[in-house]
């Protein structure tokens, strides 16, 4: 293609001017030739016809010479004029095509990829127009593909049940969906280009977005509550994720607002229910266990009565343990476990727990041996939690031991 354009340029810049100069020189040569030929012609006539004939023809020859000179000059001027007209027409045609190309290029630069140039010939301008048409067609296909993909992505984000805010590296909004507009009572008009701080009423969330954009971690999250116009509190789990392209360059941050208000309310209801149940059950169970132990310690009971009371005591203790475990599990799930760290003597705690299991062990025909060293160092821990550990260990051992005994031991494995 470059060779064709180069040859066309040579034709326009060299061949046409050369033809023009050749025509002009031809006219000059014709005129000059006439000037040179006429004197020789008169001498030849004089030699043949005599001096008298020459004198008679001299006037006519001069008139003829002048007419020929003027005729040659007019022919030269006419040829030059014709060439000028032809060359002007060619230049005009090329100029119009170039103007048309410029106009279409301007429309394409404004996003109108439907523009096409009419190709009327196969010179360099026509070839350039064909290449331009192929380029615009390719750009149109690529643009339509990109726009379709963008529309699909925006539609997916728009219909997500969680609130989504997409921001650039400066914190300006690129896109937000319907859910986030409903959460914050935002208008339906486009908010793209505005800072996220304009409609997110939380310094914590804004700091989360900013730290995600300029930090090294890919994802950050926090729990956040928002109080609306009618004093309705909404709980969100906010998660910000840094978005990079295929080359690892940072593009922006996608922040998802997950409404966990219902889950929060269900957890609170469950915790309230468990607190009520455990309190209403644990209190009478403590009294029942106490009365059973009191009756068993009395006299006048036969072997069958003692057996029934031992079974009742074991069931009551197991039920109380289950209630305590349920309450403890609820606290752990809610993240409300509090540790009251005090110096704890493990041997004393173990002896207290063993004493509470003596009736059950005696009924099952089991024994328990405490081999814990009496000089164990004090442990900085929550005494009640340590006691529950011993209760669970001994209770499980009692439940799954059919004969023999249970050994309780503890050793120091190293400095703490």
Describe this entry's structure for a reader.
- The protein is α+β, with helices and mostly antiparallel strands.
- The protein is built from nine helices and nine strands.
- A five-stranded antiparallel sheet has the order 2-1-5-4-3, sandwiched between helices.
- Helix 1 packs antiparallel against helix 2 (51-109), helix 6 (261-297) packs antiparallel against helix 7 and helix 8 (346-364) packs parallel to helix 9 (383-399).
Q: Which strand-content bin applies to the residues?
A: 5-15%
The average pLDDT score comes to 75
Main beta sheet: strand number and arrangement?
Answer: 5 strands, antiparallel
Low-confidence stretches: 1-11
Helix content: 55-70%
Q: What is the CA-atom radius of gyration, in angstroms?
A: 54 Å
Order of helices and strands: HHHEEHHEEEHHEHEEHE
Q: Oligomeric state of the chains?
A: single chain
């Amino acid at each position: 293609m470059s060779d064709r354009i180069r040859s066309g340029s040579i034709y326009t810049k060299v061949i046409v001017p050369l033809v023009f100069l050749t025509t002009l020189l031809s006219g000059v040569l014709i005129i000059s030739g006439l000037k040179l030929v006429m004197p020789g012609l008169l001498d030849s006539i004089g030699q043949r016809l005599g001096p008298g004939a020459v004198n008679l023809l001299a006037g006519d020859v001069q008139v003829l010479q002048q007419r020929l000179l003027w005729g040659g000059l007019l022919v030269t001027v006419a040829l030059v004029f014709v060439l000028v007209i032809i060359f002007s027409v060619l230049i005009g045609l090329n100029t119009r095509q170039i103007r048309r190309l410029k106009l279409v290029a301007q429309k394409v630069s404004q996003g109108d990829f439907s523009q096409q140039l009419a190709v009327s010939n196969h010179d360099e301008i026509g070839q350039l127009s064909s290449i331009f048409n192929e380029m615009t067609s390719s750009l149109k296909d690529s643009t339509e593909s990109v726009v379709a993909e963008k529309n699909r992505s925006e539609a997916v984000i728009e219909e997500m049940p969680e609130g989504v805010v997409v921001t650039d590296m400066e914190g300006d909004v690129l896109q937000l969906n319907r859910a986030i507009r409903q959460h914050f009572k935002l208008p339906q008009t486009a908010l793209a280009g505005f800072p996220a701080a304009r409609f997110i009423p939380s310094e914590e969330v804004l700091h989360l977005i900013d730290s995600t954009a300029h930090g090294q971690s890919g994802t950050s999250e926090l729990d956040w509550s928002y109080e609306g116009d009618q004093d309705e509190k909404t709980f969100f789990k906010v998660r910000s994720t840094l978005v990079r392209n295929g080359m690892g360059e940072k593009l922006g941050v996608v922040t998802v607002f997950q409404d966990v208000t219902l889950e929060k309310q269900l957890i609170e209801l469950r915790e309230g229910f468990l607190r009520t149940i455990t309190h209403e059950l644990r209190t009478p169970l403590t009294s029942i266990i106490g009365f059973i132990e009191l009756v068993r310690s009395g006299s006048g009971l036969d072997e069958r009565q003692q057996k029934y009371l031992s079974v009742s005591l074991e069931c009551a203790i197991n039920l109380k343990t289950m209630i305590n475990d349920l309450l403890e599990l609820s606290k752990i799930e809610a993240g409300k476990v509090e540790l009251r760290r005090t110096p704890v003597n493990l041997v004393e705690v173990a002896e207290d727990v063993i004493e509470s299991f003596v009736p059950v062990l005696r009924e099952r025909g089991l024994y328990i041996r405490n081999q814990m060293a009496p000089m164990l160092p004090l442990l900085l821990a929550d005494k009640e939690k340590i006691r529950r550990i011993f209760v669970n260990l001994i209770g499980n051992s009692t439940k799954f031991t059919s004969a023999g005994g249970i050994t309780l031991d503890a050793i120091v494995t190293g400095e703490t």
